[in-house]
Amino acid sequence: MANCVNNSIYDSLAFCPGQTVLPGVRKNTYYIPKRDIVKWPILPETASDMKELAVYQGSFELAAEAKFKRIDFALNKGRINYEPQGEKPSRTFLNKGSFKHPYNDEGAAGFARQANADDFVFVTQQRDGKFRVLGNEMFETDVKVSGDTGEGTTGDVGTTIDVEVTDVCPAPFYVGTLVTEDGDIDCSGTKTETDEGSES
Fold first, then answer.
1. Model-level pTM greater than 0.70?
2. Beta strands in 5-154 (DSSP E)
3. DSSP assignment, residue 169?
């Protein structure tokens, strides 16, 4: 008989009545091409606590001069969601993000042209302050960018960035350091630059 490693460390999923659950994500996402990542944080195979199974250990280590770039969102125009895909025992998660940038200009079109055939990692802060990751070493990240000039005087103009990637974990949490063009961000739960300003 095979020696099986059992990862069953289930715990209760409790909810406190009267507690507010904030939906949505904050005002931006950070992204980087995977080729600029020289060392990845580790998603644990086993853990002593159920929560640890969904949290990356360590930080992204980047190539010299490489930094995560920022994409700002239109107000209330960002979200992350996930769903299971495939059949047991090969079932995985399809992690998705949809982000709306307010402009439909040369910069947005230039990003769309490059991203059409590139592979990325996105790190986005939830409204509760926790960071989630879309992208991993195993599977390619599919980014589809669409734009709209709007119409009339009140049309909805902007650039929509839709992200999809297969993963073994639903949009893993990130508590390491994020090296960005805005400076280093401590994603472990202390106050960061992304805590300030408008939210999405």
1. yes
2. 25-33, 37-39, 55-56, 61-62, 69-72, 78-85, 92-101, 120-126, 131-134, 142-148
3. S
